[in-house]
């Protein structure tokens, strides 16, 4: 099971608080406590960090999680991905992504330095003082690195990475998972240096695969590259392949056959990753339920039917187990928080 250090949970909350979101409410939705995220030795599940980031994205309508002067609207990154997925090579996709963000925001600037054997992706914040602990910088670099690896089908080799700030002693161990290469700190700028030969490779992913990948964002960007091949992730991707509603889940024996395994073998592999087929199904239902409640206008009974529940009360009971609130109360609480943020930003 992939985990993340408390630093990234803490900084996600800090950005949300800066824009007026209720930190206690956010943590409660993910099952976290202030003591956990303030403990430098604590580690949380990357899945929980992804859920927390999703809530902040939706709550602030800001993919920069409150750490820039002006927000970057939710959906911008997905739109960029759809614009670059049809490029002929990884280098062309990377070049187009830089041009895209240059058009849509002045809060973050990407640039490329292309040489014979290397391509350096540089990142600058317009107001770095709003990201004093470098969370947004590392988050964005990690996203771009993982995206390049995902589009190419294998993790992209990094030649080097530079950071325009001192070595973060408290969480430096995370870097070997986020950016597997050599580093230079206190550098003139922050960058990732790719092997240009690798970036000449074609994009092997399809638009349909992109839709699946983005449907669970940002989870795919918060796990080490090897986790993409975990059986839990592969089973989840298979179940979401068609993305049809109402949800219908195949029998476990049919899923095992898709991976050329017997039921006991796949069950054992999932157990080794601290999960199960039932847990994967429930996680999919939970994630889609939250999305439908917060982003859509569907009634609770409609959402229950879309998620494959035969009775609304069964869905309500499951949702209360996930979040501690009924679906109606969850939606009301969220809208109250968003209304408060909107009022503060307009004052």
Which terms would index this structure?
single chain, 347 residues, Arc Repressor Mutant, subunit A, 17 helices, 7 strands, 53% helix, 10% strand, globular, disordered C terminus
Folded structure, characterized:
By secondary structure, the chain is an alpha+beta fold. It folds into two domains: 197 residues, no CATH class; 105 residues, Homeodomain-like (Arc Repressor Mutant, subunit A), CATH 1.10.10.60. 53% of the residues lie in helices and 10% in strands. Strands 3-4-7-5-6 form a five-stranded mixed sheet. β5, α8 and β6 form a beta-alpha-beta unit. α1 packs parallel to α4, α5 runs antiparallel to α6 and α11 crosses α14. The longest helix is centred in the last third of the chain and has 20 residues.
